[in-house]
Amino acid sequence: MSPPNAIINFFPPKPSKLVGKAIDSVTDKSSFPPKPTKSVEKSGVSPEKLLMQLVFTKFGLSPVIKMPSTKLSLSLSPAKPYTTLHSSFPFPLSKQESPTSHQQADVKTNNGAPTDRKHCRCKQSRCLKLYCECFAAGGYCDGCNCNCCRNNVENEGLRKVAMESILERNPNAFRPKIPPSPSNAQDIVDDAKDSPMVGKHNWGCRCKKTGCLKNYCECFHAKVLCSKNCKCVDCKNSEEYHEKVALPGRDHNSTKICNNYEEYKKSMVVSSGDNNNTNISKNFEGSKEREAITNADHGEPNICKHFEGRDEAMAYPTRVNNQASICIKQANAATSAAIGFSGSSIVQASRKRKLQEFLDLNEKDPPIQKLKNHQEVNTLRVSSSLSALSVDPIGNASIQKSKEFQCSARSSFADIIQEQDVEQLCSLLVLASEAAKKVLDKNGNQAVKIQTANTAEVQNSKIFQEEPNVHEETLDDHLSENEADTTNTDNHISGGIEGKEGRLSSPGTLALTSNAKDELIMGATKQDQILIHGCNGDVYLEQERLVLASFRDCLKKIIVLGNMKGEIL
DNA sequence: GAGTTTGAAACT
DNA sequence: CAGTTTCAAACTC
User: Fold this and answer.
1) Which of A114, A368, A499, A552 is in the most buried spot, having the most CB atoms within 10 Å?
2) How many CB atoms lie within 10 A of CB A236?
3) What is the H or E stretch that residue A437 is in?
4) Strand C footprint nucleotides (protein C-beta < 7 Å)
5) Which nucleotide is nearest to A134 (CA to C1')?
6) DSSP secondary structure letters along A263-321
7) Residue A339's pLDDT is what?
8) Among the ranges given (A175-184, A199-208, A232-241), the one the predictor scored with the smallest mean pLDDT
9) Does residue A205 approach strand B to less than 7 Å at its CB?
10) Nucleotides of B under 7 A from a protein CB
11) Which residue is nearest to nucleotide B8 (CA to C1')?
């Protein structure tokens, strides 16, 4: 990779900022295939499409096929911005859905006539920022009127880096803002009567002045109603607003408003194939309309026409208080943000550092050396995190983060459980296992008898009762040091636990210990207890207690160390 | 088509 | 996270 300085002149004079720096540092444009012509590819799979598929695969997204090409719009009047907007999805296409659905929606109207697609006119962004609709939609610029465009195949490297930078900042940046409906555009048209409003803006608009009734509003632009995800002010494009408008029991005009709203809702969702949809936008364009709507809030007529055809106007004697819906939206803002941008703030927090890391890497150290340096200096966790930035800044951030998480999760116990503890615990378990095996071998018949009469717990108790020697021979030597802590009765077990409460720092610990005791002692059936407290029962109980006491001590030790570590942290 | 307004995106 | 700047689309004239 060449040093960034080598390509400084490759870009327009305007100095790039953080993202731009990352973009500028990429110098692999020569490695890309020759620039194809910008002629329209009306059929077949172009190299661009294949490349797009690769790009989105790299980013963990489903492939997106480039929007239909410019020339398809030639048969339409160029001065139909709303038609353009309605006929081409204004926001990034779903990465899950079939591209053909939107392609169809883009290419044809309901009359079968081809329609336009969006052409950007970017001047400063080089079409490598989300300002550019082509780029935001995951497509290449083709036939656009943009300046210094880098959103093309020959600048694929830059494009990738730009996408990576944006995705780091917002992993959802290239996901559709308006989730696609399960059906395609034509289905939407067909189903409009049954379910007129389909979809909503994923994280909502934030309009302040337009009442969400102009195409500035992303929701309105996408022909969906504003939802609780939105943080808009004085919204006139929400279900709540229109429900308030069309209160039941109103006069004739109100009834009419309600009906018109239904029509309005239908029109909002028919996003393709309707040239007359320009009516909708026309109804809301211009400050006069907006003022009229605002006045309607205070009882002035005129809002109805915004929900009807251009030629209709009707009285609108309603005072609408939007504050409730706004409050609801704002109250839900945090929730929606959490849903839509979980992890985004984390990404933002480290964005600058990551980009600088990336730049430093390209500028100075080869990635592997950089990783080594970090590993020498930092802990495993830190180096893991840094290596995520250093080694693979393009596409595997999530994998690296996952590794980082694993490292941190492991470390929470790494300092608590010591090797000798594990060995002690294992030796106890081995002894218990061997003893149980011997008992089973020697007393299979008796065990079977008990098994037929009782439960599995009964069987276990019986085993210890039937074979005292095994426990005496195997356990006593190993557990003698614990005898001081244990006595012959249940009360003593209990007392032993309680007497060491100073070492037990949590009620959960006590519960754990006493529960273990209860399960072992009280879990036996009545018949069991008769057997346990029979002639040799006390001896075996004692041995069982020794095992349990040792096990308990191990747990206590771990708990104490864990609590100490917790206090330190 | 130039100029203004608007809100998303980018940045501080 | 809030405030500011940049940007390009939407809109007006």
Assistant:
1) A552
2) 27
3) helix A419-442
4) 1, 6-13
5) C8
6) HHHHHHH--SS-GGGHHHHHHH-SHHHHHHHHHHHBT-S-GGGGGS-TT-------B--
7) 39
8) A175-184
9) yes
10) 5-12
11) A131
